[in-house]
Amino acid sequence: MLILASGSPRRRELLASAGVDCTVLRVDIDETPSAGELPTDYIARMVSAKAKAAVQALQSDPSLLKISETAEDTQIVLTADTIGVLPDGRSVLIKPEDKADAFAMWQQMSGVNHQIWTAVQATQVKKAADDTITVTNTVNILEKTDVQFVALDDAMMERYWQSGEPQDKAGGYAIQGGAAAWVARIDGSYTNVVGLPLAQTLTLLQQLGHQV
Ligand SMILES: Cc1cn([C@H]2C[C@H](O)[C@@H](COP(=O)(O)OP(=O)(O)OP(=O)(O)O)O2)c(=O)[nH]c1=O
To answer: What stretches pass through the bilayer (predicted)?
Structure first.
């Protein structure tokens, strides 16, 4: 069975909607961007740090890995990271720290286009007889979706902040929730915005020989 190393319920639900069962392993990493770090570098660092943390957790508790110790028996650990990117191509939007941070992000997205990027990493691991976990293959994809927001006023932003939904979402919004009314159009994968580009992820899993 697939190990989804993500605390995001959206990712698990998307995989379940495609009939993919997974075991959830929560990993906690520092998601602070470095000064001047470009979106491509930041998102690659995040998705790989989440995978490293997951492999470490498996190493501490190898019983989480439901595979035998034969060389052919491997398991896939899936990690993902979702960010917003402003039209300057440099500004990364992650989860808002507080209300002021959310408002500042939304003001920059009001009435214009931004992009949502999700990076997905499939890390194939195997277990040796002494319970050592080794990574046998790593494959990454990066999917980008253009999103255009309507013009937002203070009352719309205030109402949405009070809903409690923005707090744990990249860019401080959920297209699958209250912010659906803010989205004039998108160009690209919808599920990518929700946190996991489903069709592309299934292709990735198939490439690694995982039955989907
Ligand atoms: C833009 C957008 C983001 N999101 C979510 C997807 C991700 O869960 C979250 C971005 O944060 P992430 O750090 O990508 O994911 P996470 O912290 O929820 O889970 P983990 O790190 O354990 O994998 O924002 C939506 O649900 N809807 C949206 O429209």
So the answer is: none
